[in-house]
């Protein structure tokens, strides 16, 4: 079978291309003209098509002759800044073009898998979220343009499944970590909160800023974030290798057609467990601070992905840290780096 990957030079797309190529699939990639990140995939026999997701003719050319589509190409926060018009053209119109071209294809598309994000959901209420989040337990109500554009993409996918009988599924990623990225996650970095609270003018905000600034000046670089009741923050992420596992499991799985699935690691983590582990491994000291702000506190229910296509992520956050250190030392190459 031949697979089209949009966003093929991104941190997820490049890793999917390498893994599925090694598994014996023919790979085709849609890339921007002059994309320097194409070098990530040098040495692999991949057919590249230069084009723009917002251009229907370019997308038709890319879709021609393929059996499976992994649609990852998108404008997102880390790659910007993007304007609201660009979010709409690249994400919404681009997804529309992929869906339309799939329906027009002379070779019936066996499976189209569209990438979405947990940025579609409002995950930061005042007290956090106590119950595991399923695919339908939170309203899709984000007002950020990236998240909102992905809501529209999910709705488009649902429409084409129901009214065009297109075999389409949606994978909604949790926060993604690539090669070495767990060590630099901004919410583990004390400096992130120093800069954040520097703008606070209320009495408690100023007090916390002074504490954070003094800790940073004394040499602390990491933070165990707690809410004002002393509860450690909690988060659920996903790493590249578990995402690859999800794609391998879902491909051509009929139960998944027409559905959206949350993809995350096998378990969430809390700051009070993971940050001390990172500190021990890296030698960076940490402090513990109760922060007067809505906390990060949630985890995902992955039972739908397990029941429908056998998604069983295996990586622990501790292994992610250990492998990130190996990556920094040049002794880990299982993941294609985000940039070259």
> What count of helical segments does DSSP give?
10
Cα radius of gyration in angstroms:
21 Å
Instruction: Encode the helix/strand succession as letters.
Output: EHEEHEHEHEEHHEEEHEEHEHH
Q: Strand order across the biggest sheet?
A: 3-2-1-4-5-6-11
By secondary-structure content and strand pairing, the structural class works out as: alpha/beta
Parts with pLDDT < 50 across at least 5 consecutive residues: none
Shape: globular
Helix content: 25-40%
Q: How large a portion of the residues is in β-strands, by DSSP E? A: 15-25%
CATH topology of the domain at 2-177 and 237-264 and 300-313: Rossmann fold
Q: In total, how many beta strands?
A: 13
What is the CATH class designation of the domain at 2-177 and 237-264 and 300-313? Alpha Beta
The CATH architecture name of the domain at 2-177 and 237-264 and 300-313 reads: 3-Layer(aba) Sandwich
Superfamily at the CATH H level of the domain at 2-177 and 237-264 and 300-313? NAD(P)-binding Rossmann-like Domain
The biggest sheet, with number of strands, parallel, antiparallel or mixed sense and barrel status, is: 7 strands, parallel
Distance from N terminus to C terminus (CA atoms, Å) equals 29 Å
Summarize model confidence as the mean pLDDT. 96
